[in-house]
């Protein structure tokens, strides 16, 4: 199975329960950081494309902050959940890949890729294709804003096997990849054990992501007709002015057309 098919399978499996299982992520607060970045570096325009919108949590958070939102995602099951999200009735959701988005998406003041969709682009070609596609979706003075996991985050979170006890549910995860290195693919096995009528039910999936170093992002952006205008750190959902690949969880990038 290709990496993108594995990602698709993982999100199709989990879509119906994604919001519940990912409840510890405060998407509204994360979106606040994206909005601040768009206000600081962008044109102030309100047309926003939520690329990798998942179940629409980020899309409705942007809408609540005054944006006119269109969203798309790789997974039809995630998009189906987004279309059913209360309050998302006026948001247009489509199915498509960052590497080959749905046609006709152009002229956006902000393209946002929230909660690491771009980590699922597992080689340079896919990263460049996705950045080039985002470039074409932007208005002349628009900004693309996206977050990526740091190497420190991959090591801390997936480098050692972990189990979370959530009452009637246990989640276990560990990196299958032997080493977590800069610009390398990180394969993480997730197993979810949930109490059933008799015994436990197990759901397994693999997430195939890639660490993109700052050098790689800048090179890929340049080759795609974009330039990095800011790279801030994120610790949880708190912003740090200068990104640190070891200590911070994520880097929040802002890029513009050259
Ligand atoms: C962690 S979820 C975040 C969803 C949403 N932005 C949010 O904040 O709730 C990552 C999403 O990225 C999507 N994704 C992964 N690879 C993708 C790709 N190549 N093209 C489009 N979407 C992708 C997944 O289907 C998933 O819905």
From TrEMBL:
Protein name: Class I SAM-dependent DNA methyltransferase
A Pfam family matched in the record: Methyltransf_25
CDD domains: AdoMet_MTases (cd02440)
Residues annotated as domain Methyltransferase: 49-142
Gene3D superfamilies in alphabetical order: S-adenosyl-L-methionine-dependent methyltransferases, Vaccinia Virus protein VP39
Keyword match Zinc: no
Organism domain of life: Bacteria
GO BP terms: methylation
MF (Gene Ontology): methyltransferase activity
Record keywords, A-Z: Methyltransferase, Transferase
Species annotation: Nonomuraea insulae
Keyword Electron transport in annotation: no
């Amino acid at each position: 199975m290709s990496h993108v098919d594995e990602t698709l399978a993982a999100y199709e499996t989990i879509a119906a329960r994604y919001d519940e299982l990912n409840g510890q992520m405060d998407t509204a607060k994360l979106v606040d950081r994206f909005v601040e970045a768009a206000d600081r570096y962008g044109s102030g325009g309100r047309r926003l494309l939520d690329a990798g919108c998942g179940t629409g949590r980020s899309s409705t958070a942007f809408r609540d902050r005054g944006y006119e939102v269109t969203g798309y995602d790789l997974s039809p099951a995630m998009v189906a959940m987004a279309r059913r999200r209360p309050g998302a009735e006026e948001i247009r959701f489509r199915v498509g890949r960052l590497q080959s988005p749905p046609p006709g998406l152009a002229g956006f003041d902000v393209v946002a890729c929230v909660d690491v969709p771009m980590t699922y682009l597992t080689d340079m070609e896919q990263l460049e294709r996705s950045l080039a596609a985002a470039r074409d979706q932007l208005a002349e003075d628009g900004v693309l804003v996206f977050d990526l996991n740091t190497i420190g985050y991959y090591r801390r979170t997936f480098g050692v096997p972990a189990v979370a006890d959530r009452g009637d549910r246990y989640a276990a995860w560990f990196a299958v990849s032997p080493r977590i290195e800069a610009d390398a693919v990180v394969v993480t096995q997730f197993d979810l054990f949930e109490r059933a009528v008799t015994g436990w039910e197990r759901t397994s999936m693999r997430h195939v992501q890639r660490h993109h170093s700052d050098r790689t992002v800048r090179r890929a952006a340049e080759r795609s007709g974009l330039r990095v205008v800011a790279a801030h750190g994120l610790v949880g959902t708190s912003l740090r002015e200068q990104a640190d690949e070891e200590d911070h969880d994520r880097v929040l990038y802002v890029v513009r057309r050259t």
